[in-house]
Write a structure and sequence with these properties.
This is O-acetyltransferase. It comes from Aliivibrio sifiae. Belongs to the transferase hexapeptide repeat family. Pfam families: Hexapep. InterPro entries: Hexapep (IPR001451), Trans_hexapeptide_repeat (IPR050179), Trimer_LpxA-like_sf (IPR011004). It is a single chain. The chain is mainly beta. The protein has one domain: UDP N-Acetylglucosamine Acyltransferase, domain 1. The protein has 2 helices and 15 strands. The strands form 2 sheets. It has an 8-stranded mixed sheet with strand order 1-2-4-6-9-12-14-15, with no helix packed on it. Strands 3, 5, 7, 8, 10, 11 and 13 form a 7-stranded parallel sheet that branches. A hairpin with a 4-residue loop joins strand 14 and strand 15.
């Protein structure tokens, strides 16, 4: 627990100028943060982690080897990029491939990176398989189990998750397509959506 607190304090000091709100102590020290991120209590991050400006993660969410874009909203109780077990052995239990159990043959643990784009909304309790891509503007419904890549601006729901519709793409001023790369004051000045 002492190591977790030291890591927590280190991250708070390292990113002090970025206006972060970190309430979780389960964050790897090599994590990369953007500006104005919020990481709520009970969030557990394993492996590589990067999060873009103004994105947030709500309570009790697990993430493993995840890269998140800007302005992305992740609800509570989600599982993103969790580990997998081999299904071609006689057992899926890690006793055969994990050194913790004294396994002689250790399986290379090369977890796949899960990519979550910009302006994505992931609903409460969603599960995202490791190695998939959730593209810009996508919405994942509460409770969805996503096992495939999700294209831009699509809304997916269900078990397994499937496309239910496409989000309307608003006409952005000045011919802008990637609004998340514009200065925040200019974004806040827009009066039409």
């Amino acid at each position: 627990m002492f190591k977790k607190i030291i890591k927590f304090l280190y991250l708070k000091v390292k990113y002090k100028s970025k206006n972060l709100k970190i309430k979780s102590v389960n964050i790897p020290i090599k994590s990369v943060f953007g500006h104005s991120n919020t990481i709520e209590s009970g969030v557990y991050i394993d492996g590589l982690f990067e999060i873009g400006d103004f994105s947030y993660i709500n309570k009790n969410t697990f993430l493993s080897n995840v890269k998140i874009g800007k302005f992305t909203s992740i609800s509570s109780n989600c599982s993103i990029g969790g580990s997998e077990h081999p299904t071609d052995y006689f057992t899926t239990h890690p006793i055969l491939f994990n050194s913790y159990y004294g396994a002689k043959k250790i399986i290379e643990n090369n977890p796949k990176e899960t990519l979550i784009g910009n302006d994505v909304w992931i609903g409460h309790g969603a599960i995202l398989k490791q190695g998939i891509i959730i593209s810009d503007g996508a919405v994942i419904a509460a409770g969805a189990v996503v096992t495939k890549n999700v294209p831009c601006y699509e809304i997916w729901a269900g078990i397994p998750a499937k496309k239910i519709k496409t989000r309307p793409i608003c006409k952005l001023p000045y011919g802008v397509k990637e609004w998340w790369n514009i200065d925040i004051k200019r974004i806040q000045a827009w009066d039409e959506y």
